[in-house]
Write a structure and sequence with these properties.
Layout lengths: L17 E2 L6 E2 L17 E3 L6 E4 L5 E3 L2 H10 L1 H19 L1
Antiparallel strand pairs: 1-2, 3-4, 4-5
Bound molecules: zinc ion.
The site of zinc ion has 8 residues, from loops.
Length: about 100
């Protein structure tokens, strides 16, 4: 389950020093949608909990943009994670506008 509460995020990821590509919010923590990996790895997907921007981690665990093609790829090979991702984006956007 995807949990957006900060308390649920892994402390090891707290040393990340990257910023959201969209709103510039410092990325201090990360979590994974499936709850399996404890620290982000290259290629893992990140959602900004401030603005719902979706990005992926590069080899330095900094964020880089996720293309529509990559998003479609996730949708194809991992529809469950894709749905969780889209749910999270929708929840954050609803929160921001509500
Ligand atoms: Zn953001």
């Amino acid at each position: 389950m995807l949990n957006l509460k900060k308390e649920s995020l892994h402390p090891k990821a707290a040393s990340l020093k990257c910023k959201c590509l969209s709103c510039n919010e410092p990325l201090e923590m990360a979590t994974s949608a499936d709850g399996k990996s404890e620290v982000p790895e290259k290629g893992n997907i990140s959602i900004c909990i401030m603005c719902a921007n979706v990005a992926k981690f590069d080899e330095d665990l900094c964020l880089e943009p996720l293309s529509e093609g990559e998003l479609n790829h996730i949708k194809k090979v991992d529809p469950k994670s894709y749905r969780l991702l889209m749910d999270a984006v929708r929840l954050i956007k609803e929160r921001n506008h509500g």
